[in-house]
Amino acid sequence: MRQDYEMVIGLEVHAQLTTNSKLFSGSSAEFGAEPNTQTCPVDLGMPGVLPVLNTRAVDMGIKFGLAIDANINRVNRFDRKNYFYPDLPKGYQISQMDYPIVEGGYVDIELEDGSEKRINVTRMHLEEDAGKSIHDLGEDRHSHVDLNRAGVPLMEIVSEPELRTAEEAGEYLKKLRSILRFLEVCDGNMEQGSMRCDANVSVRKKGEDKLNTRVEIKNLNSIRNVMRAIEHEAERQIAIYEYGGEIDQETRLWDATKNETRTMRSKEDAHDYRYFPCPDLLPVRIPEDRIEELKKEMPELPDQKKERFMKEYGLSKYDASVLSMQRASANFYESLVNGNRDAKICANWMMGDFFAALNKAGKDISESPISPEQLGELMDLISEGTISGKIAKTVFEEMFETSRSAKAIVEEKGLVQINDTGAIEAIIEDLMQQSPENVQAFREGKTKVMGWFVGQTMKATQGKANPAMVNQILQQKLQG
């Protein structure tokens, strides 16, 4: 992007709550059911039915507000947002306009250079989801509507327009998703649509304070796509300004295949939706004692856990950040350390071989075939000198494939490390007799020859010799 321009970005994130039932009915909110099998007269907008508020969703909203240090509105209200679309059977969506449940708050993000930036949150309100229009069922040229999602509870989290780069937007979404997952109010699965993002993007010359016309990019379903769409849209707007044109306020869609945005519709304002208070729902009044009860249920959040990992385990800021980003990773790590293992070595194993294996297999940590106890057993075998670090990597690969214990694999394959000084000395002396020229080279100052002797010794023992012993004995023997 041109250096004389800057982006102004605000994000609207829709997070589907992990309630069992919908926001205003008892229908199941579970993902993946057959189309139109999880609906009821309330979801379908049948005449004479009345919505009943899911109080669990309200509790989740309060928890989120507490997590971002926001103001919890003790009195909030639901409104009808009127628009017509095939997947909205009632002709309106129950949402919150003037009196949302949460206002204010912030999310702190860490930038690439190690600095931190605070992104303020405008509001979070609760609303019901619409259904889903389906247009790609094989050769069928008709459009279909699945109303399983209609009425599913959502949080809409609106940021202030304080993000200035696509990278900042990506970090904000990662942090927000981490908070939601720690609270266990949303699974954050963007591919399944349980967390979706709309990006509002405008550009301006650096040094200017005014906000130019913004464009909304709708329904982005991955952090990577959010970043790519923002970058593309900013470049598109700059090109228009440079040619003397004006930006139209509109909603655009992101085409990930063509790597471009395209017009969806002209942007509506609030008055276009004809908001008015929902006559079927009373205002929600939240008592102080309920907020106090929920405060006691709050988990340790990512930033708190990161600070504790640095203080308690002596981890670097980077290591602590990576391990505390997901609740499952943090719990796995603490179970691995188990109070007595080396915290840094545990971190290295998790962030190295373990995360690499999960990534290669396309698995989440919750799907890991290795438990913290099994990985800890492998690390104990290394620290006890039973196996070398090199052999441990081979054992780990088989553990990941089979879920078998490290001890069972080591015993079955005879991988116990050779710690017998006499046996190692005999191998080294034999090598020295076979390669007197290399011995002479070492004694003439060509110390790199040492590596050759180490390699040959490990080869002769099939990698089982204790590396520390090999190096120590070689130094003694070669120096004569």
Secondary structure topology:
Blueprint lengths: L4 E12 L24 H4 L10 H13 L3 E2 L2 E2 L2 E4 L9 E4 L6 E2 L2 E5 L5 E13 L3 E3 L9 E3 L6 E7 L6 H18 L11 E11 L9 E6 L2 H20 L7 E6 L4 E7 L9 E2 L6 E2 L2 H10 L4 H12 L3 H8 L2 H11 L5 H19 L10 H12 L5 H14 L3 H8 L7 H14 L1 H8 L5 H12 L6 H12 L2
Parallel strand pairs: 13-14
Antiparallel strand pairs: 1-11, 1-12, 2-6, 3-17, 4-5, 4-16, 6-8, 7-8, 8-11, 9-10, 12-13, 14-15
Helix pairs in contact: 3-4, 6-7, 8-10, 10-11, 13-15, 13-16, 15-16
What's the short story on this structure?
By secondary structure, this protein is an alpha+beta fold. It is built from 16 helices and 17 strands.
Helical amount among residues, as a percent range? 40-55%
| Assembly status | single chain
Number of domain units: 3
How would you classify the helix and strand content by structural class? alpha+beta
Our measurement of the CA-to-CA distance between the termini, rounded to an integer number of angstroms, reads 65 Å
- What is the number of beta strands? 17
Give the integer mean of the pLDDT values: 91
Q: Note the main sheet.
A: 10 strands, mixed
Strand content: 15-25%
Q: Can you tell me the residue ranges where pLDDT is under 50 for at least 5 consecutive residues?
A: none
CA radius of gyration is 30 Å
Shape type: elongated
Number of helices: 16
